[in-house]
Design a protein that fits this description.
Elements: E1 4-7, E2 14-17, H1 21-28, E3 36-40, H2 42-45, H3 51-65, E4 74-78, H4 94-103, E5 112-114, H5 117-126, E6 130-133, H6 138-146, E7 154-157, H7 160-170
Parallel strand pairs: 3-4, 5-6, 6-7
Antiparallel strand pairs: 1-2
Length: 171
């Protein structure tokens, strides 16, 4: 999760920015690190939210985190439920493949930062280090990962700013 909480509410998804996310994104700029945001929004596929309400939520997220549109390079969202078994839903690579086609070149992922088990499974599929943040769904995901075969492939950190610090330190 890129520093925002999507709350499932009857009136549609809501977005709140975590403190420090924009500053963390700004730390990546001098290093020319492309930031790609990919989310699964299965509530659309299950009919719980409209595609329009989720797109509005994504727009609010961008306004909160990157109002000048200089920090986040690509945003992709899978609107399908897990039962629909599409290729764009994490942990499959369809969203990354779509971004690569749009960009006109392969997207060479070097890290995967997220708060879900599916994010860390995608990291494994891409062959990159997974960094699990303990914000959002991260606490529960951390417990589940520690009990799984993914445990050896994932670094657990407190938040997005800590994950970005790890990325910057590795450059």
């Amino acid at each position: 999760m890129l520093g925002a909480v999507h709350l499932n509410r009857p009136d549609g998804p809501q977005v709140t920015a975590y403190e420090g996310v924009t500053a963390a994104l700004e730390r990546l700029v001098p290093h020319s690190v492309a930031v790609v945001v990919i989310s699964n929004q299965g509530a659309v596929g299950r009919g719980e939210h409209s595609l329009e309400s989720v797109m509005d939520s994504n727009e609010r997220l961008m306004t909160l985190l990157d109002p000048a549109r200089e920090l986040i390079d690509y945003v992709a969202m899978c609107p399908h439920s897990a039962e629909q078994q599409c290729r764009c839903r994490k942990p499959l690579t369809g969203a990354i493949d779509t971004i690569a086609r749009y960009a006109g070149s392969p997207v060479g992922a070097r890290w995967m930062v997220g708060d879900r088990v599916s994010d860390m499974e995608l990291a494994r599929r891409l062959g990159v280090p997974g960094i699990l943040v303990r914000t959002g769904h991260g606490r529960e995901s951390s417990r589940r990962i520690r009990e799984s075969e993914l445990a050896v492939d994932v670094t657990h950190v407190a938040d997005f700013a800590t994950a970005v610090a790890m990325v910057v330190d590795s450059l």
